[in-house]
Structures are given as structure tokens and as C-alpha cells.
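Hey L., structure's done. Input below.
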Amino acid sequence: MFFTRLRRHAKWMFVFLALIFAGGFVVFGVGANNAGTGIGDILQGDGAGGNGVVSVSDARERVRESPNDASAQRELATALETDGQNDEAIKTLNAYLKLRPKDQDALRELAGLYLTKGNGFQGEAQNAQVRAGYLTAGSTFSEPLKLGTQGATLGEDPITTAVTTEANESINAAITKAQEAYTEAVTTYEKLVAVAPRDPQVQLELAQTAEQVRDFPKAIAAYKRFIVLAPDDPSAEIVKTQITQLQAALQPAASG
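Output:
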């Protein structure tokens, strides 16, 4: 059937999708609407909405007049986020951070935008998977139709082959873009850690994001740092369990 064939041609894609959709930032409350988590506030639009936000056109004009004015860049980033132009907001925040590299709020906001971008692409991958299944439903055979007793077949259904190829390409492209966005989020959190090395929440957010892209060594290191900084935190025992699981995942499979 279609999904059997798709899994055979793009098995790693499904593994990645399963990990992403089954994981997320729920276990430790990162990304939830908790005060101080950063990601949750950003995804809910904090700092990018509300009354008094300047228009995008006015903010652009200010940047054109004073491209090295950090406050102008920050104002434009906020206006772009309010207007839903997140890709350009990312570019503008990066420009702002070149001028104000230690702005923790801006770094957190940028990481949140990268995460949102990655989530959008992973959604595209899932939609491509579902769409392909819908288009081929009822039009494919579980095995090629056999002719006579010599084992000859009619070959694969051309409709299925075409849709499978298109789906593989769409899923591959979307997952690649999602990985790139999540990797940028990890890089941004590393910059935030450098600015706020003793903030346990930042370590937790870095660990979760690194785990999202399956960079387990980096995730383990950040989780361990979190334990050092916040040994009495309610999440500490869960984090310790997570460290153990990730360390086990890094061990080579037992032979035999």
C-alpha cells in the first residue's frame, strides 16, 4: 500500500516526524503559558502585540533613516511580528542583536520565532503525508498484480508512484527546513546561555530545543547544568530521568 511504500522510501522522515510530534516542549512546561518560560510568552504574542505598536511602514522608514539605530531595528521587529511577517522579523531581530548582542529578551524572542518557523514546516510535512494518503486511497494494490505463474507483474501503480515521489520530495523539503529552523533556535539559545549562564530556565530551554533536533550530547549537557543550577526545582527529578534516557539512546545497540 501507499504508506508501506512511502515508509520504505523515506523511513527516516517518519521517524523524525514521530519524534517531533510526540515530543514538543510539554514535559517540563517549556512553551506553556508559565511566567518566565520565554517560549510560551513569545508564541502567545507577548511583546509583539497590543496597543501602541508602530506600523510596519513607519518602522521601516525609521530604519531606513537610521539603520544603525538599535531601537529602530527593535521597533521594526515588533511591528513585523504583530503583522505576522515572522521571516522578516527574524532577519530584523538578527540585525538588532548585532547592535545589542546581550539583549536576553530579544534572544529569547528570536529563538521562539525560529521554533515557530520549525513547527510550521513540520506541519507542512505532516500535511503532505496526509494529502498523499488521501490521493492514493482506493487506487493502489498492496502488492503489484501478478500475471500467470512466472512471477511477472504489471509493475507499480503509476499514480501511486507519482504521488509517492511528490510526497517524498515535499516531506523531505519541509523536514529539512524544519531542522534548519530548530538548529537556528539551538544556536540562539547557546548565545542566550553565554549571556545568562546561571539562568536554569535558559538551560532547560536549550536542552529541550537540542533534543528537538536530536543533538543528545548538547541536550544532556544543558540538562545537567540545569540540575546544578536548580537542584531543588520541581522538574529536577524528571530532568534526571530524561538524562538517563538520552544517555541510553546514545549507547550502541547490544550486539547479537
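Residues 1-26, 31-50 have pLDDT under 50 and may be disordered. The chain has eleven helices and two strands.

-- N.
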